[in-house]
Amino acid sequence: MSNLKTTFAGIQLRNPIIISSSGLTNTAEKNQKLCEAGAGAIVLKSLFEEQIMMEVDLLKNTAYYSEGIDYLKMSIENYKVREYLKLIEDSKRLCNIPIIASINCFSTAEWAHFAQEIEQAGADAIEVNILALQTDVEYEYGAFEQRHIDILRNVKEHVSIPVIMKLGYKLTNPVALINQLYANGAAAVVLFNRFYQPDIDVEKMKHTSGEVFSHPSELSRSLRWVGIASATVNKIDYAVSGGVHTPEDVVKAILSGAAAIEVCSAIYQNTNAYIGTMTRFLDAWMIRKGFTNITQFKGRLNVKDVKGVNTFERTQFLKYFNEHKVAE
Q: Which of 18, 163, 224, 319 has the least C-beta neighbours within 10 A?
């Protein structure tokens, strides 16, 4: 058997398969089963800043004084945080693989103060998600990217465990942001986070939820940017997320420069047993190609000529459409 170990965010994993933050990872018992199925690491279901603020808003009463509202907010926040810390502790007790906490935030300092508690509860790392659409007409260019850096700095001030930044794909230049995140202490980045997918019911004329699971076509976006970024900012670790649906996708991600792969939809659709399917394929592929460890082929197909990437992309675009005829 090949050596499937990999290092991600400075943490050694027995294999590159990380179960991403989702309903799959919201209890210690589920996490134990994922561990037993062969996962390399687990990212716990995110604690959402918006969720806590929403609960505060729902319970607000105009009769409350401002001090009462502040107390209510603090009580709900403390309860949610205690619940989350217990999830970390219980998962660490039942699993012998890295447990990564996940926080989803949009304000600069709201969550930094309890990052230390997450570390004390035993989390091996923290994954920070800053997922938001920028829709302000008076938006100042670069403000969203700066928010990533500010949140990272605040979290880093409170913890010594690795901090992983999971980015959304609505960025003009992910490479420039990744370079700044590395300079400010990020141990790894995950490309990319997935937005909620909206849809519209034309008969009921109301908004509905679109496709919940990712689609295989989403993988190309992550492969492109991991391939570019890993060649340019090469001292930080990368994970591919979104569109990973087949065992071959795991190999593609590593070839593009990823040290690990975050998987969610494929596990929902194929059960925990699919983790073994992925690792067995990876092992067999490595043997077939003569590789004994992941380092030997990680990044082999990243973008070597970064300056020429736009010319390459344009050329391939033209070739693709020249080779495909319109159906008559």
A: 319
